[in-house]
Amino acid sequence: MAKRTKRPEFRNWAGNQVCMPAERLWPTSTREVADIVGRAYDSGQRVKVVGAGHSFTSAALTDGVLLSLDKMDRVEMVDVENQRVLVQAGIRLFDLNDRLAEVGLAMSNLGDIAYQSIAGAIATATHGTGLKLGNLATTIVGMEIVTGTGETIWCDERANQELLRVARVGVGALGAVTKVMVQCVPAFNLHVAETIEPLDDLLDGYTENIEGNDHFEFFWMPGAKRAHVKRNNRTLRAEDPPNRVTHFTNKIIGENIAFDALNRVNRRRPGAVRKVAKYLPGGVEADYVGRSDKVFASPRHVRFYEMEYGMPVEAFPEAMRRVREFVSTLGMQILFPIEARVSAADDIPLSTANGRTSSWIAAHVYKNTSYDTYFNGIEKILDDYDGRPHWGKLHFQDHRTLESRYPEWDAFAETRAKLDPAGTFNNAYLDRVLGPLD
Ligand SMILES: Cc1cc2nc3c(=O)[nH]c(=O)nc-3n(C[C@H](O)[C@H](O)[C@H](O)COP(=O)(O)OP(=O)(O)OC[C@H]3O[C@@H](n4cnc5c(N)ncnc54)[C@H](O)[C@@H]3O)c2cc1C
Question: What is the pTM of this model?
Fold first, then answer.
């Protein structure tokens, strides 16, 4: 029986998105989800599913029924031979990673955190970094979906192939995803090399860096000359992680507590930190070997707002130089780094990397800081490169500006009209970014 609550308010992780659904429910099975959606369809009510609430956009908001699949978090099947697992859609990535490690498997790539639910992560095309690695949705080889009419459909490489291709990145518009089959890889370790290097060198040597490393990324503090660089490469060497004290000092104190304090001071007395900020590389050097998922994902205790844009990989050095130039004229001290990553092209219609190898530029500000001028300025630059905003991160686009940036926009629209003819899963965000249903 689905648990319900008397206090239905929902607030996302960053605290910038809040809604008051008519009802919040925690179903425990696909059958329950289908019953709830079927009833909503019959009565014309709206439904949304929320994962871990880690999107910065209003993607998961509703004034109808809000479902959380937190109680649908089981691993239902492990196929070690084919390196596949069937999981319920509410499982969190950190939990999945541990369960995979127990059977000698791992996700091929991950983003910076592992708090997300698997369904929420794929819905917005969550990605990590790696020239030859697609986003998390590209690892999905089967899905169970409760459509907008309450019907349950399974799709994989044999049954409903086209639906699988499209539905992997659904932005919550096609129905409630209740199970997914994930293609994993044998468990692996990563050799971590973190350095501080001049930004100009990183831009001049961009191609060599992304081609020469399994996972390349850097964090550049606006105004600084140098950036914090991460080159993570697969290794057969055994784990040799930094000791607990070093890890605590770097990740918890450096990247969270001290960082939070600096941002608080900056908000109250911006002039006080301006001089210091110029010299902040935004990280410390490191060299160790760790379990892949522990290397990819870090703890994030400092709350912030984020915008991230994908662009054709060849556009990156010029775009990043223009972003640097723009930031230098901004007149406000940003104490959160800009992150640069890369990922492989895929064939998923609404994937932000559809049909093109993508470089990424992500801008962040401390929570409760105004971001309009900063994010808007960067967005305008990236518009020149047909930039595609991350579906789960802040942006100012709508369906009129987005449609031409997705060659397979119509394939998604057709699937949406078929699976959710009455708009049961619609909300204001989808009306804005995908347009109203015809
Ligand atoms: C600190 C932080 C770090 C991040 N790092 C990265 C990163 O490294 N790379 C990256 O690409 N992104 C990153 N993100 C963004 C994040 O991965 C995405 O916003 C992701 O969608 C969040 O997953 P979630 O489970 O919280 O989903 P939610 O935010 O709860 O939901 C996202 C969307 O998925 C839909 N949805 C959720 N569950 C289901 C379901 N079962 N069926 C159908 N639809 C569903 C929701 O309705 C909504 O539309 C980060 C976010 C934060 C806060």
Answer: 0.94
The answer to whether 224 and 277 are in contact (CB under 8 A) is yes
Q: Is the pLDDT of residue 248 over 60?
A: no
Cα-based angle 433, 436, 438 (whole degrees, multiple of 5): 135
CB of 344 closer than 8 Å to CB of 134: yes
Q: Which protein residue has the closest C-alpha to ligand 1 atom 27?
A: 120
Pocket test for ligand 1, best of 124, 163, 302, 393 (most atoms within 8 A of CB): 124
Check whether 15 has a pLDDT greater than 60: yes
| CA-wise closest residue to 367 among 29, 3, 17, 99 | 17
The CA-atom distances, in angstroms, between 7 and each of 4, 19, 23, 66, 323 are 9, 11, 9, 12, 43
Rounded to whole angstroms, the Cα distance separating 280 from 331 reads: 18
Q: d(Cα 207, Cα 161) in Å, to the nearest integer?
A: 35
Query: In whole numbers, what is the pLDDT of the chain averaged over residues?
Result: 93
Residue 169 Cβ < 6 Å to ligand 1: no
- The alpha carbons of the chain give a radius of gyration, in whole angstroms, of 21
Q: Strands 47-50, 65-68: parallel, antiparallel or unpaired by DSSP?
A: parallel
- CB atoms closer than 10 angstroms to residue 374: 22
139 in contact with ligand 1, CB cutoff 6 A: no
Instruction: Name the band, by pLDDT with cuts 50, 70 and 90, for residue 257.
Output: low
The CATH code of the domain at 189-396 is 3.40.462.10
Write down the domain spans for the chain. 75-186, 189-396
Does 251 have pLDDT greater than 70? no
Tell me the one-letter amino acid at 134.
G
Give the pair of three-digit tokens for residue 324. 């640097």
pLDDT score, position 159? 96
At 143 the pLDDT is 98
Q: Which residues contact residue 52 at a Cβ distance below 8 angstroms, ignoring those fewer than 6 apart?
A: 13, 92, 115, 116, 117, 120
Phi and psi torsions of 116, nearest 5°? -65, 160
Nearest CA to ligand 1 atom 34: 120
φ, ψ for residue 7 (rounded to 5)? -115, 85
Q: What is the pLDDT of residue 281?
A: 46
| Domain 75-186: assigned CATH number | 3.30.465.10
For residue 315, the tally of other CB atoms under 10 A from its CB is: 18
